[in-house]
Design a protein that fits this description.
The protein is of the alpha/beta class and 317 residues long. It has 12 helices and 12 strands. The protein has 2 domains: 111 residues, no CATH class; 180 residues, 3-Layer(aba) Sandwich (Rossmann fold), CATH 3.40.50.150.
Length: 317
């Protein structure tokens, strides 16, 4: 498959070209498109990567506490960037034991990710689950039209999930949280899943990103352009100042490719930023949430405090 085949519209093409040609970076959201979704599916299931299972286990342990914190009411469930849908199976099953029907809505930039979600949720469709999906880029704007429709057709409140360390990946976290807040009412809640910063054990954090499945996933866009992995090396480092993992592709030789009528030329030593993954602690998270119009209502961690689920709610400015 060529890159022309997986970018879905001209706006995505323009955003991709501008970022890569103008800033030498590729927004991570593009590697989930088309065949890239199945690379991500392999990462979630990979034992050495481990974060997928870690978060799902924490979700199972924390849902009872989250449900008590939100008043044990009936909520529509909105899954923002659902991954392969297996975490949705966990929380949909939890709420099915407490009320029905369940109104579940998944939104993602990748239609293939949504297909994986539907595949894994399909066994629940006979158990009073009303399921819907939409292609949406929540980095670009709010989805209030869909969330309002869900409140009209389902229950008056929405419970949103932003799992998989998704909030740590965009270059502009503030904008993403603002878009989500603009899609919520004051009676809605948001659950954020995030790997926590342990600055005393950076090696453990970096290990997740040095796995072969992660490297294959992260190279998807460059390889689709015709830039072979053998043309460079992947560098992984932790930026302490910004508290984030950074992955770059450093060219070992000159490379020149043509895409969408534009020439992309790289010299030996040039780098392309392929991924950032922000890691935070409770104090930094509270500041970020406060800045974007949320208040924290609950904080749930695993025993090692390496991963967290944050329950928050919009507040009035």
């Amino acid at each position: 498959m060529t890159l022309d085949g997986f970018l879905q519209n001209e706006k995505q093409v323009s955003e991709f070209v501008t970022a890569l040609k103008g800033r030498k970076e590729i927004p991570l959201k593009f590697v989930y498109l088309e065949a890239g979704a199945y690379n991500w599916d392999k990462i979630i299931e990979d034992r050495k990567y481990g974060l997928g299972k870690l978060e799902n286990d924490l979700l199972r342990e924390s849902l009872s506490g989250i449900y008590r914190a939100i008043g044990q009411r009936k909520y529509n469930l909105i899954d923002i960037g659902p991954g392969n849908g297996k975490k949705a199976v966990t929380f949909v099953n939890f709420f099915l034991k407490r009320y029905s029907p369940i109104y579940y809505w998944a939104l993602d930039i990748s239609r293939e990710m949504l297909r994986l979600t539907l595949k894994n949720l399909r066994p629940l469709l006979g158990h009073k689950v009303v399921l819907d999906t939409d292609i949406a880029d929540f980095e670009q704007g709010n989805f209030s039209q869909g969330s309002r429709k869900l409140r009209q057709e389902g229950y008056p409140r929405n419970l949103l999930f932003l799992l998989g360390n998704t909030i740590g990946n965009p270059f502009d976290r503030d904008r993403v949280l603002t878009n989500i807040r603009e899609s919520m009412t004051l009676s809605d809640y948001l659950v954020i899943g995030l790997e926590l910063a342990d600055l005393t054990n950076i090696k453990r954090i970096i290990t997740h990103y040095r796995q072969p499945v992660v490297k294959k996933f992260i190279l998807f866009c460059l390889e689709s352009m015709g830039i072979k992995s053998a043309n460079g090396v992947i560098e992984v480092k932790f930026n302490r100042k910004k508290s984030q993992i950074e992955m770059r592709f450093r060219f070992k030789r000159e490379v020149r490719v043509l895409f969408k009528g534009e020439v992309f030329s790289y010299s030996r030593g040039d780098c392309v930023l392929l991924l950032i993954s922000y890691k935070s602690d409770r104090t930094k998270l509270e500041r970020l949430l406060e800045k974007t119009g949320f208040r924290m209502r609950g904080f749930y961690t695993n025993a090692s405090r390496s991963y967290g689920l944050i329950l928050c709610q919009p507040k009035r400015y």
